[in-house]
Amino acid sequence: MDDSAQFPLVIGNVLLCEDVRSEANGKYSALGIYSGDMLVQSFGGALRMALYLELTAKKPGPARCEVNLSFNNVLLASAKAEFDFVKVTDPAILVFPMFPLPLSGPGTLSVDVICDGATMNGIKKEVRQADLNALYPSASARPSSQSPTSRKKKVKQL
Prior knowledge:
By secondary structure, the protein is mainly β. The chain has a single domain (about 5-150), classed as Immunoglobulin-like (Sandwich), CATH 2.60.40. The protein is about 5% helix and about 55% strand. The protein has one helix and ten strands. It has one helix at about 130-135; strands spanning about 10-15, 20, 30, 40, 45-55, 60-70, 75-85, 90-100, 105-115, 120-130. The protein has a five-stranded mixed β-sheet with strand order 4-10-9-6-7, with no helix packed on it. The chain has a three-stranded antiparallel β-sheet with strand order 1-5-8, with no helix packed on it. The longest helix has 4 residues, at about 130-135. The radius of gyration is 21 Å and the shape is globular.
């Protein structure tokens, strides 16, 4: 059975990224969005993290919810919020500003939303170690045939 049918809210966009900024025009900018697994060069440090979450009501009226961010089932951050949804087409936006995520080893980062006693997962990301230098070689390691100067088009003068 699909749990979303019983959940009173619709979870819209959920982004885990390095930073979320509120712009002067009322929009948000997400920087450094983590897509797929979250890869780190080594463990023992902290990962820069922010969360952007949209919630929409299935019917107008008040809603109380709690958003929990956990790593390997250990609660790292939690926020409680109350909304009064006038229109079901207007989402409520929750932003966890940039914070450090301590990483001692691989695991699962999870964002769960609790509303009216029901829990729904918003997103899960695996955090694992990888050789980032092999995956994303630096610009200085490009072969000379790929350097910007060797790709310039020659222009014929008339």
